[in-house]
Structures are given as structure tokens and as C-alpha cells.
Amino acid sequence: MSAATVTASRTFRLPDLGEGLTEAEIISWRVSVGDTVTVDQIVVEVETAKAVVEVPCPFAGRVAQLHAEPGQLLPVGEPLLTIDAGDARGGEATEGRGGDLADADPHAIYREEERAGSGNVLVGYGTGAGSTRRRRRAVRRAELELHDHAREGGERERGFHDHASGGVERDHAVLHAPKVISPIVRRMALEAGLDLTRLRGTGPGGVIRRADVQAAVDAAAKATATSTHTPERDLAVVQAGGETRIPLRGVRRAIAEKLSTSRREIPDVTIWVDVDATGLLDARAAINAASPDRQVSVLALLARITVHALGRFPELNSRVDTDAEEIVQSSAVHLGVAVDSDRGLVVPVIRDADRMNTVDLAEALRENVEAARAGTLPPARMTGGTFTLNNYGVFGVDGSTPIINHPEAALLGMGRIVEKPWVVDGQLAVRKVTQLSLTFDHRVCDGRVAGGFLRYVADCVENPVTALALI
Q1: Measured in Å, how far apart are the chain's first and last C-alpha atoms?
Q2: DSSP per residue over 345-366, as a string?
Q3: Is residue 118 part of a domain?
Q4: Can you state the angle between helices 210-225 and 183-192, rounded to 10 degrees?
Q5: Tens digits of per-residue pLDDT, 111-134?
Q6: Is the model's pLDDT at 175 over the cut of 90?
Q7: What is the C-alpha separation between 323 and 221, in angstroms, rounded?
Q8: Are 299 and 365 within 8 A, CB to CB?
Q9: Which H or E element spans position 181?
Q10: Concatenated DSSP letters for 46-76?
């Protein structure tokens, strides 16, 4: 072999994704063997215990080998892919598949698609039962079963799957990545259970655009309306005996381990108290009337009261170091707030919440809630909390005995606010009443401290004007 044909190969290994993460599951490859990649091009999507992450490659060249399959769990440091960097004497790699995109303006296409919103697919504390990763895996497995039915009943239009092609087409789909630039397009396809390798893009160079995905989804819906079969994206993997089995992997596994650790290690106790929240609602209305451009929610007021109360009862703003056999009290309040999103329960953390005034805390809370529901929270903003606030009243319930967010020592919850008969100055009246509950680690304090904290928070809720003046 002549020197001119010698290529330099470099292996890109799964990098350290931070936050103490030691492994990640391969969700999907963005490149295939033979593709030409550039420096910092996204090559693979992986799911860690914290989030779904798009991983860029630090090398340029042609993809020579992919070292893992979708669904495979890979430890940090293991090979991801091998890149042939071109002529060993410094020549550039020749253009591979995907070179027909050279005439397109990927940045313009990307910007056009991104106008629809964020393309990040990040998940935090939990994912819902309709997790796109599990749904996608279920679709792929169910496809094999449906292929048998398709052969018996003839070809049936399924919009974006052609089962008549059999295993050859499935192998082809694995080896030939779709031409997609915008993460918005990938996200739409994942949520719809759509196989992008079966789509023909109408963008420059054959790039798949949002309109192409939407057209495929609409076609599938139309075909489903005249079919007696369940749409593929709604299928579950049904095992013998009618059981449905969902893999406990990625985020769900992290949740299971964390909650199990909490139950196993923390001797938790829950106490609660009914509170007249009429004054809190009146105070919120007055604050918002005075500052219409910077609205404050009830949860924000409760958060402000909570961080102030933790200053008076620091025992609850702590954690237990079991290895050192020490209780570690935090000097700052990093407030976690449980948020329900399409991806499940997410707990963003507002750092140094004790240094914020009421309006600033309300804005930080609103920003974190919006980011959590949009799926744009990075893992770093979902860790490091010292105390968690949970508004489970949004689900229409009065009380709860939640599991503490390990390794924290306590969690304050608020139930729904409803009208109830209440005695005020010896007279019966109709008031806005809610229930506050505190679940705490009995190792860090006894009932006197926990009860004192909860009673102080309740008093502040019932007399918010006086309390907020002192904060």
C-alpha cells in the first residue's frame, strides 16, 4: 500500500458527560458507516440517568465503524465510533454520502425549523409512561410481529412503514441515516413513532423538514381511520399472559434506584396542617396589581416563605453523610421545585434562592418551570438541591406523603386550595383553605423542629402581609 493511500484512524470514545454519570444508552445514530463528518458534528444521541444528550464528534473524516447498537448500554470511555481522518500526510477525507447537502444552506434550514421552538430533548427526574424512547423501542419490536400479519392480510398502507420489504429494508434503515438537520424534526418524528429513514425529504439536497414529517403523520392517521389495525406508534410490547413489559433503563432506572435508596436509607415522617390561605391569595392579588409586568404566583409566595423559614430552621436544609456519619447543613438554600411535564416529573433547582426577593424568586421559578416543560433544562440545573417544594394541589388532591428527594432531608407540599367553613374571630366563615405537609428525615431532627418549621410556614401563609414585611 502506497503512502498516499494510508489513512489515519481515530477512535472517539464515550466522553464524560458530567454529574458523576458513568454510562449512557445509545438512542440513535446520526451518522452511518461511510458518512463524512466534520468537527463538532452531532453523531449520536444517548440517554443518561439525567437527560437525553446529543454528542458531538471532535474529529473530522469518514466514519469507518460504529461500535455500539441502539439500545446498548455503554460505559464512559468505551469506543463510540472510529473515524478515518484521511491521508496520513494531511490530506482531507474524500466526500462521502451526505455530500449532496453541500449545496444546501444548513444554517438557514436549521433556523427555519427552530422557529417552531426548542429541539432539545432533555428529561430530568422522571419520564411519563409515554416516553419517546420506550415508545420507539416498542414500535421496532412490534414491527416484526405486524410484518407477519401484513403477509397474511396483504399490504396495508401504514403511512411511514413498508412492511412488505421485510428484514432487508430494516437492515437498510440501520445502515443509512436520514438527512435531518433540525432537532425539531427529529423530536417530531420520535414523538410520532416515525421512522425517518423511510421519508423522502423535500428540502435542499433531500433534507427532511417539518412539513415532510407532518405529511407522513397525517398520511398515517388517514390510513389508520380506514384500517382495523392499531397504529404502530400506539402498540406496546405484549408478552405471554397479556403482560406489558417496559424496560427499566436510563432515566426510569435512575429514578427507581434513587427512590429505593431514599426509602431504604431515610426514616421519613410526614406531618401536616390545614391552613387558611385567603390572606395569601389577597396578598398575591395586591402584589400583581402593583406590578402587572412582573406577576407572582401562589407557589412563588410559598417558596419565598419556605426559604425564609429554612433560615430559622436550618436542620431541615441538610443531608446525612452516611459514610462520614455526619449531618451536613447547607449555608445556602438551593430550592428544588417539582414540575409536571410531558416527559414526567422534573425537579429544576433554583440556586441561592435565599438571596432572592419575592419578585426575583417568582421570575426564577417561572423560567425554570417553562424550561422544564419545554425540555430544555440541562442536567446541571436538576441537581444539587437542598430542599424540595411540591405543589401536588394541581392534581386536585388535598394531601400527600411523598418520598424525599435523596439525599435531601425534607420536602414541603401544598394541596389544592378550596373553599371550606372556617372559624374566624369566633364566627363561622367561608375561607380559602389548603393543606401543607412536611415530610422530613427523622435523623436530622425531631418532631419539635419539624413541627416548629411547619407551624411557622403556616403562620406566614395565614398572615402573609406581616410575614413578607419581615422577610
Answers
A1: 78
A2: EE--EETTGGG--HHHHHHHHH
A3: no
A4: 10
A5: 444 444 333 333 333 333 344 444
A6: no
A7: 56
A8: yes
A9: none
A10: EE-SS-EEEEEES--EEEEEE---TT-EEET
Q: Which grid cell is 349? A: 433547582
Task: Please state, in angstroms and rounded to a whole number, the distance separating the CA atoms of residues 158 and 174.
Answer: 20
77, 97, 117: which is the final residue of a domain?
Answer: 97
Q: How many domains does the chain have?
A: 2
- 31 in a structural domain: yes
pLDDT in the model for residue 178? 59
* Higher local confidence (pLDDT), 3 or 70: 70
Cell reading at 191 = 414523538
pLDDT higher than 60, residue 225: no
Type of residue numbered 384: G
- What is the residue-wise DSSP string for 388-454? EEE-GGGGT-S---PPP-TTBSEEEEE---EEEEEEETTEEEEEEEEEEEEEEETTT--HHHHHHHH
- H helical segments located in 118-209: 132-153, 166-175, 183-192
Q: Report the CATH number at residue 432.
A: 3.30.559.10
- Domain with residue 34: its CATH number is 2.40.50.100
**Nearest C-alpha neighbor of 271 from the set 437, 130, 447:** 437
Choice between 405 and 144, residue whose per-residue pLDDT is larger: 405
Angle, vertex CA 207, rays to CA 57 and CA 159, nearest 5? 115
Residue 318, in any domain of the structure: yes
- Which H/E stretch holds residue 45? strand 41-47
Q: For residue 341, what are the domain limits?
A: 266-470
442: annotated active-site residue: yes
Measure Cα distances from 18 to 43, 48, 59, 436 in Å. Answer: 19, 10, 21, 36
331-384 tens-digit pLDDT: 999 999 998 877 667 889 999 999 999 999 999 999 999 988 887 878 788 889
Within 10 angstroms of residue 423's Cβ, the number of other Cβ atoms is 10
Q: Which residue, 437, 418, 421, is CA-closest to 429?
A: 421
Range of lowest pLDDT (37-46, 246-255, 293-302): 246-255
| DSSP per-residue string spanning 75-128 | ETTSEEEEEEEEETTSPPPPP-BTGGGTTS-HHHHHHHHHTT--------S---
